[in-house]
Amino acid sequence: MEKAENEKKASAVSDVGAWAMNVTSSVGIIMANKQLMSSSGFGFSFATTLTGFHFALTALVGLVSNATGLSASKHVPLWELLWFSLVANISIAAMNFSLMLNSVGFYQISKLSMIPVVCVMEWVLHSKHYSREVKASVMVVVVGVGICTVTDVKVNAKGFICACTAVFSTSLQQISIGSLQKKYSIGSFELLSKTAPIQAISLLIFGPFVDYFLSGRFISTYKMTYGAILCILISCALAVFCNISQYLCIGRFSATSFQVLGHMKTVCVLTLGWLIFDSEMTFKNIAGMVLAVVGMVIYSWAVELEKQRKPKVTAHGKNSMTEDEIRLLKEGIEHMNLKDMELGDSKP
């Protein structure tokens, strides 16, 4: 019992660490990119190519880690890696096009819609169900973030198509991260090490053309300065931590949890924008942020409540169980006669 309790505490500390790394690195990279890309900063308007730089450094870190034996390399079929990388790159490009073609308000609404889309896709693909408390908390978060971020809302046909593509591909990518890790029993960093080189090569080849369509300029025309190079290096370093922590979080939790609690980054970005860049902070922003944080707290409570309910559910009520559900069930009945219980086969 004491060993199990210690393992539970260690797991909780690791979970908090993964979230802290993701929030810190994500907010940091947004601040660095704002300085790099804004007209008042270095005016580097090549977002897709910059993402290629991010994955190139991530791939290099993964290569060094594998070569030195710090991480193991497990087999994942090449076609799965190519398919995942294609979905991830479509997500990046579609997000950039959506931001270019749509108003900021509609862009924010499209990002908010990822939460219900992820929920529906997990229900369709993995037969996952959500309690009423979880659904209610998700709505509170969506409303709160919507209040503090959504401004003008203008829609056009091309922008709408790009936004739908971005939402669908990003949701599918985040769900696939967790499913691939479980399917091949591969760690988050190992999976990232395998997909990062493919994404880096493809983004560095096609990224400049995408950026030309977005900005009307090729990266070769940009006059690089030491300040811009330093900012790019900082952005790339933060991107490594951001990518690693994203895979860690989705591997440990679910894509839905990643989306809901990930909106804490939105709150942090708004607050830092107000403190550092003198962005406007209105009562509407503050009220929305408070509501979003309340929703996140409710969501955490609802997920914990759902976990406590699961051990009480007998296995014959389901056709199959996930590995997490089996673990929770075993913890709840460790003092009971296991011969009277029928555990379903775990999903890959």
Tell me what the structure shows.
Its main location: membrane. It is found in: Membrane. This protein is mostly helical. The chain has one domain. Helices cover 75% and strands 0% of the residues. Helix 1 (2-37) packs across helix 11 (264-276), helix 4 packs antiparallel against helix 6 (132-149) and helix 7 crosses helix 9 (226-252). The radius of gyration is 21 Å and the shape is globular.
Summarize the structure.
Keywords: Membrane, Transmembrane, Transmembrane helix, Transport. The chain has 348 residues and is mainly alpha-helical.
Let me know the largest β-sheet: none
Taken from the alpha-carbon principal axes, the silhouette is globular
Annotation, overall tally of beta strands: 0
Instruction: Calculate the mean pLDDT score and round it.
Output: 74
* Unreliable spans: 313-348
Keywords:
globular; transmembrane; 348 residues; 0% strand; single chain; transport; mainly alpha
Question: Can you lay out the helices and strands and say which pair or pack?
Answer:
Elements: H1 2-37, H2 47-67, H3 78-101, H4 104-112, H5 114-126, H6 132-149, H7 157-184, H8 188-215, H9 226-252, H10 255-262, H11 264-276, H12 283-309, H13 323-332
Helix pairs in contact: 1-9, 1-11, 2-8, 2-9, 3-7, 3-8, 4-6, 5-7, 5-10, 6-12, 7-9, 8-9
